[in-house]
Recover the amino acids of this structure.
């Protein structure tokens, strides 16, 4: 009996041990594989914020799925090879109608992911280290429902195209409070303010996160936005700011998503006079077709603050924004992708605006992007063409150079009052091409008082004489003509007028009776 008992106990112990072993083996099989989890790369920006990349990975054997979020872009992993000792993952996302892709190579080293990626295939790889992040951090927020469309009442602003300065073209992420103050000082004293320039616009990278109540915070570069606005106002100028309808801006900073009314209220409390609202991060949550509702949301919010705030739509001309931008409350809307300080970029954008003329009107302007005048990669002749073309187009004149250190020749281009008067003409009609032969083009713009601006452009690199019969331009009759770059009256000879125009240059006239 005693022996049988001992035997039974032994059997029981063996059964318990075996089942424990099986349980351990089963649970080991279920435990996450090493790459599974939420990973983050945090690259510090100089302003106390971070440029983040999140990799939310699920490893199943040699298959990796999940998502990659790089600043404003949110990719789904569509392909993978390898495992913890060395893997490649490809993420893809739709951006409007085109597909964007990213690819990372990586391996697990200790508890970290060592990663490398290339911006473009021909670039050198960028190395980075990801560490584990709490689950859910960096996840894309849920989509908020969109308001029904309605017409946002006109805010009564921007009866002529806005004039001012914007930080992006020259300073990008290096813009800060002292820079903005010194630019305001320069604009107030170098003749620009007297010539009509008014807005000092801070572009992307001023933002930090939000406080516990959800209020947007400024980062280290902008210690006190209200004090900065007070300073800019004390110079007789106005202050502009930048945000996005998405969770993130283009540079990956905090956007206004889900905080539209709160942010509009904050801007008004700070004394902001102008908002550029940049689509960027919104593309991860919404389609292009949903843009009008998102822009309307902020248009309504700005109006509700009761502060006059110019509303600038920046979504690169998608979805024919000129057809609905005004209904969303917009005073101006970008019509193209970003301009660069290069003849090709500027001329392609500027000469490509012809068909949009019917949509511009007082309070609502086509915006072919900010000026590059004075940034150094075009000649003075080309910058004159830039200024003339933007004036013919009734485009916003937002200087994009360092106003504190520009040469007198650049100042003279930016403050050419004759050309500015064309841009600011109160009739508010955008000009159009009236004649073209090869690289030579003539554009005209109707002006108030039965006058008109006419510009002879030479897009070729060598000088050219543009000879044209006034009858072909429907310009017969008596006209007084003034050359707006040499500031002299000229004779509009009949029946044919000839202008000798420098390579990439312009001759611009104001005609009146
Ligand atoms: C986009 C805009 C630019 C600028 C940057 C800032 O590219 O088109 O004008 O605002 O974002 O990140």
């Amino acid at each position: 009996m005693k022996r049988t008992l001992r035997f039974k106990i032994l059997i029981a112990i063996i059964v318990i041990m075996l089942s424990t072993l099986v349980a351990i083996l089963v649970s080991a099989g279920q435990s996450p594989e090493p790459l599974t989890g939420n990973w983050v790369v945090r690259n510090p920006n100089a302003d106390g914020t971070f440029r983040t990349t999140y990799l939310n990975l699920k490893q199943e054997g040699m298959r990796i799925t999940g998502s990659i979020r790089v600043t404003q872009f949110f990719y789904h992993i569509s392909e993978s090879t390898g495992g913890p000792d060395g893997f490649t993952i490809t993420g893809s996302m739709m951006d409007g109608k085109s597909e964007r892709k990213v690819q990372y190579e990586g391996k697990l080293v200790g508890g970290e992911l060592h990663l490398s990626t290339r911006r473009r295939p021909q670039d050198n790889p960028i190395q980075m280290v990801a560490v584990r992040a709490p689950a859910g951090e960096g996840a894309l927020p849920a989509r908020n429902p969109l308001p029904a469309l309605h017409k946002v009442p006109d805010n009564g602003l921007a009866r002529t195209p806005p004039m001012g300065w914007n930080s992006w073209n020259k300073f990008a992420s290096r813009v800060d409070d002292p820079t903005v103050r010194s630019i305001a000082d320069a604009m107030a004293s170098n003749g620009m303010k007297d010539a009509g320039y008014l807005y000092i616009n801070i572009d992307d990278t001023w933002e930090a996160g939000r406080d516990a109540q959800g209020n947007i915070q400024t980062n280290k570069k902008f210690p006190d936005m209200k004090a900065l606005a007070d300073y800019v106002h004390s110079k007789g100028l106005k202050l502009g700011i930048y945000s996005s309808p998405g969770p993130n801006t283009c540079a990956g900073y905090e956007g206004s998503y889900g905080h539209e009314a709160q942010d509009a209220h904050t801007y008004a409390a700070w004394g902001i006079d102008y908002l550029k609202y940049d689509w960027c991060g919104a593309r991860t949550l919404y389609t292009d077709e949903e843009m009008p509702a998102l822009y309307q949301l902020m248009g309504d919010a700005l109006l509700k603050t009761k502060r006059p705030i110019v509303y600038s739509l920046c979504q690169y001309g998608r979805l024919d924004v000129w057809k609905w931008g005004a209904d969303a409350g917009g005073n101006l809307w970008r019509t193209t992708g970003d301009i660069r300080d290069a003849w090709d970029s500027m001329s392609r954008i500027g000469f490509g605006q012809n068909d949009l003329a019917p949509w511009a009107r007082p309070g609502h302007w086509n915006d072919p992007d900010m000026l590059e005048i004075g940034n150094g990669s075009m000649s003075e002749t080309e910058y004159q063409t830039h200024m003339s073309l933007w004036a013919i187009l009734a485009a916003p004149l937002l200087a994009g150079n360092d106003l504190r250190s520009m040469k007198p020749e650049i100042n003279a281009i930016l403050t050419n009052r004759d050309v500015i008067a064309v841009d600011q003409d109160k009739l508010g009609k955008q000009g159009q091409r009236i004649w073209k032969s090869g690289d030579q083009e003539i554009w005209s713009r109707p002006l108030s008082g039965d006058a008109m601006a006419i510009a002879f452009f030479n897009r070729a690199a060598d000088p050219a004489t543009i000879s044209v019969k006034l009858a072909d331009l429907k310009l017969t009759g008596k006209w007084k003509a003034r050359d707006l770059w040499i500031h002299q009256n000229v004779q509009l000879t009949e029946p044919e007028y000839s202008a000798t125009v420098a390579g990439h240059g312009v001759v611009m006239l104001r005609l009146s009776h």
